[in-house]
Amino acid sequence: MTDIEDQVAGLVLAAGGGRRLGGRPKALLEHRGHPLVEHAVDVLRAAGCARVHVVLGARAEEVRARAALDGCVLVDNPEWEQGMGSSLRAGLGSLAETATRAALISLVDQPGIGAAAMGRVRAGYQDETSLVSAAYAGVRGHPVLLGAAHWAGIAATATGDRGARAYLREHEAELALVECGDVARPYDIDTEADLVHLE
């Protein structure tokens, strides 16, 4: 496979239960007339990811029923209540069975990060050893691109809500930062107050 579109897959982490949102799963929050999980998939596809895997957890059956996720690989994370780390492990595990060489990670609760930022980080891909992260005024943020050579190490350290943070800190020298502050707003939809960001 030489086509970069086949080598970089999108991975949406959409399993969270929205504990601070009264138990409403973030995947189903409405944004621009569609569930957030649909928006996240559309952004990854617009950024050039032909293959998209979506990790589901809280009310997964309802998400499957209400969201249009045609063409996506849906990955169930039965351990979603343990935090984002478990979803990252599940998602990378599902990609390990494919020919994908890198995963572009999207968090379902960050709709202010659009295709422009996703595309910039994706463009940093060189091979399976790539580690690329968006930066905002020089501070590392999302999205991140994780080359397949790093997946086992990331899975071993992804616990609780930390995801790849510990691994990226340990491998800072290998991490390429791509400034995205001019094209994205990296807020999270975590609490009722954050719902003002949804359109």
- Give the beta-strand count: 9
Strand content: 15-25%
Can you give the mean pLDDT?
A: 94
Share of helical residues: 25-40%
Tell me the overall shape: globular
Protein architecture, described:
The N and C termini lie far apart (39 Å). It contains 7 helices and 9 strands. Helix 4 (84-95) runs antiparallel to helix 6 (151-157). Strand 7 and strand 8 form a beta hairpin. It is of the alpha/beta class. It has a 7-stranded mixed beta sheet, sandwiched between helices. A two-stranded antiparallel sheet has the order 2-3. The longest helix is centred in the middle third of the chain and has 12 residues, at 84-95. The chain has helices spanning 4-7, 36-46, 60-66, 84-95, 115-122, 151-157, 165-170; strands spanning 8-14, 30-31, 34-35, 52-56, 73-76, 102-107, 131-136, 139-147, 176-179. It is 28% helix and 23% strand. The chain is globular and about 40 Å long.
